[in-house]
Design brief:
Length: 481
């Protein structure tokens, strides 16, 4: 039962070779064995998982798409009656009275929740070190980060503690940990998956997507979680394709764009650059696709534009955490003003406080036009850059990160260096387009990969390219845990 994909697990369950209880116990045992080395889980729902597995076995019906499949959820996804913390002290004991739409859809499809996995606090970070509870470790090297903020999701998949996991991506938080840990991660088009019930970092950027062992698994999960919801006005009434049925379509004559600015970036590791260019050239030749150099001239403005906007939205979203209505509250205050101040001082971590200060500053009366409004205009221009590029090519191939997984603590005290880790991913969120991270191999014993970018709602195309790339690379290596 090691490293099962959704398809393999379903075949075992439907054939009667294993039961849902046996499969669930296998993963719970695996979690118990590997957690001291990985630290991916914040909450393990052992009793709930076994009870759900018993119900499925009793019915004997495994026709639902995910019936009996054990999964993990990033701990910003609300789960009714199950602790949901956002990896923050301010929500350490919060029990949601409702479930997020994405979890409702997975639960209806038969998925079994093994638990909630770690994240940077309120998803603010690129390393999974900003959790209030513990840092998650990279399964390939316990001294290195798994990436963030969906580091717990990526690590749990690669450590084989679940069949797949769900993460969120505001500026690269699915793709970057998938890249650092060596799994597949999809950031869908903004609005493709409902955000209702998912704790917000920056509402106009946040997306929800799967981290899986294969591109096919990603396609299967997307068929379940994507689509319009009356609870989320940002989800269009747009039909969800059968992603898994069109993965093998021929790519002959398709055009692959290479953003020259990404490969000219001074911080891009030469080994990663060499491997990616060799992989892209080989892939295009084998598939009969054409390579075309593309320019995205506003790339250099992506990081400041992104961080001005997301920190502004974050400062607004975090205003609700004041200790009055729910969450942590200080015991040492003499008046309401002091209560607010001490609750936030004690309840929030350094990165969240930094976001509140940056965001409040850029939204203030004297600086709104100079910072926020200007960044919003640049965001629109960056989107236009991508629109123009997709008039010439079908997809873009690009690096995910300028470097591989770095050591725990290496960048934690230098926020600017940590922000620069997102240089190749934030543009995708600014433009609202889909991006798929696929492993391309190991360099010096650590995984690396590339991201495939498509125009809005072109997940079907992106997954099609990703499936063929996955078959060509045939990345089979697993960490020794």
């Amino acid at each position: 039962m090691e490293n099962l994909t959704i398809k393999q697990a379903k075949e075992l369950l439907q054939s009667g070779k294993i039961t849902a209880v046996e499969l669930t116990k296998h993963y719970l045992d695996r979690i118990e064995k590997t957690e001291p080395k990985v630290d991916a889980f914040l909450t393990i729902t052992k009793e709930e998982a076994l009870r759900k597995a018993e119900e499925i076995d009793k019915k004997g019906d495994f026709s639902a798409p995910l019936a009996g499949i054990p999964i993990a959820l990033k701990d910003v996804i609300s789960t009714k009656n199950i602790r949901t913390t956002a990896a923050s002290k301010i929500l350490e004991n919060y029990i949601p009275p409702f479930s997020a739409v994405v979890w409702q859809r997975l639960e209806e499809a038969g998925a079994i929740l093994l638990g909630k996995v770690n994240t940077d606090e309120f998803t603010m970070g690129s390393s999974c070190e900003n959790s209030a509870f513990k840092p998650t470790k990279n399964p390939w090297d316990e001294n290195r980060v798994p990436g963030g903020s969906s580091g717990g999701s990526a690590a749990s998949v690669v450590a084989d503690e679940c069949v797949f996991a769900i993460g969120t991506d505001t500026g690269g938080s699915i793709r970057q940990p998938a890249n650092f840990c060596g799994c597949v991660g999809l950031k869908p088009t903004y609005g493709r998956v409902p955000r209702y019930g998912v704790m917000s970092y920056a509402s106009s950027f946040d997306t929800i997507g799967p981290l899986t062992k294969t591109v096919e698994d990603t396609a299967i999960v997307m068929e379940i979680i994507a689509g319009h919801s009356e609870k989320d006005a940002t989800t269009p009434k747009k039909e969800v394709p059968k992603y898994s049925e069109n993965l093998q379509n021929s790519l002959k004559g398709k055009k692959i764009g290479i953003p020259k600015e990404y490969f000219e970036e001074k911080g891009l590791d030469e080994k990663i650059k060499t491997q990616l260019l060799e992989t892209i050239n080989k892939f295009a030749k084998e598939q009969g696709a054409e390579i075309k150099e593309i320019s995205l001239p506003l790339t250099e403005y992506a990081i400041p534009t992104y961080y001005i906007l997301v920190k502004s939205e974050a400062s607004t979203n975090l205003a609700r955490y004041d200790g009055v209505r729910f969450g942590y509250k200080t015991d040492d205050a003499h008046d309401l003003k002091e209560f607010y101040e001490k609750t936030r001082e004690e309840g929030f971590g350094p990165e969240v406080k930094r976001a509140i200060m940056m965001g409040t500053f850029t939204l203030s009366a004297g600086y709104f036009d100079a910072y926020y409004k200007k960044a919003a205009r640049v965001r629109n221009l960056i989107k236009q850059n991508f629109d123009k590029a997709f008039e010439e090519v079908d997809v873009l191939f690009a690096p995910v990160s300028p470097f591989q997984a770095f050591k725990i603590g290496e960048k934690k005290d230098d926020p600017l260096q940590m922000y620069l880790a997102d240089i190749f991913t934030v543009t995708v969120n600014l433009a609202g387009i889909p991006g798929l991270a696929v492993p391309t191999g190991l360099i010096d014993g650590l995984p690396t990969g590339l991201q495939i970018l498509g125009k809005q709602f072109a997940e079907e195309t992106v997954l099609n390219f990703g499936w063929h790339l996955e078959k060509m690379v045939n990345f089979q290596e697993k960490p020794n845990l």
